[in-house]
Specification:
Shape of chain B: globular
Largest sheet of chain A: 7 strands, mixed
Order of helices and strands of chain B: EEEEEEEEEEEE
Helix content of chain B: under 10%
Radius of gyration of chain A: 13 Å
Number of helices of chain A: 0
Distance between the termini of chain A: 36 Å
Number of strands of chain A: 11
Helix content of chain A: under 10%
Largest interface: A-B, 29 and 22 residues
Radius of gyration of chain B: 14 Å
Structural class of chain A: mainly beta
Distance between the termini of chain B: 41 Å
Oligomer: heterodimer
Order of helices and strands of chain A: EEEEEEEEEEE
């Protein structure tokens, strides 16, 4: 299996909702990432997990809460989001810490009403 | 600070024509360099990477890129484009501050004329 999968593909939520984005890879990669991408912009790094531990948090608001239950799974829990949080959320993985070759999933298109 | 510049926001070429997308970087040591492609509403797909060694790198879909240290460049080329190459292209450099981070350029949108 050589891909990163993300669910759901699309998500619409209200500002009071709680939802989660899921990411999975079965390539044995030990680093996983969350990115946020606005239209016509490059991806912006949010979080990095290395060997299931949070290693980088790019000063992301606490309404975004990452979780890495095991080496194959990465979740992003969402609560009390704002309309400006609407974006494409991308998950990526890389083979090991220090290897920057990142493999991206197809993304979740999030709309906050 | 590390940075990546893609000077061309939008490029239009005719199908069958050659293509060169420019990428310049600012980095204190020998970087890892990447080119990614993104179709509308999709994730990023890795086209090719440079870590060390041969400065001419071959990638998928007929793309190649050349690392030129003296010019701090890593330009992407393809001898003959296809309509399916229309997409957004991102150049990226890492690691950043020793961490598993990439810095992306702002992207170049490629349009193909039939």
């Amino acid at each position: 299996d050589t891909e990163v999968t993300q669910t759901p593909k699309h998500l619409v939520m209200g500002m009071t909702n709680k939802k989660s984005l899921k990411c999975e890879q079965h390539m044995g990669h030990r680093a996983m990432y969350w990115y946020k991408q606005k239209a016509k912009k490059p991806p912006e790094l949010m979080f990095v997990y290395s060997y299931e531990k949070l290693s980088i948090n790019e000063s992301v608001p606490s309404r975004f809460s990452p979780e890495c239950p095991n080496s194959s799974l990465l979740n992003l829990h969402l609560h009390a989001l704002q309309p400006e949080d609407s974006a494409l959320y991308l998950c990526a993985s890389s083979p090991r810490a220090g290897n920057n070759e990142q493999f991206f999933g197809p993304g979740t298109r999030l709309t906050v009403l | 600070a590390q940075s990546v510049t893609q000077p061309d926001i939008h490029i239009t070429v005719s199908e069958g024509a050659s293509l060169e997308l420019r990428c310049n970087y600012s980095y204190g040591a020998t970087p890892y360099l990447f080119w990614y492609v993104q179709s509308p509403g999709q994730g990023l797909q890795l086209l090719l990477k440079y870590f060390s060694g041969d400065t001419l790198v071959q990638g998928i879909k007929g793309f190649e890129a050349e690392f030129k240290r003296s010019q701090s460049s890593f330009n992407l080329r393809k001898p003959s484009v296809h309509w399916s190459d229309a997409a957004e292209y991102f150049c990226a450099v890492g690691p950043i501050q020793g961490a598993q981070k990439l810095v992306f350029g702002q992207g170049t949108r490629l349009t193909i004329n039939p």
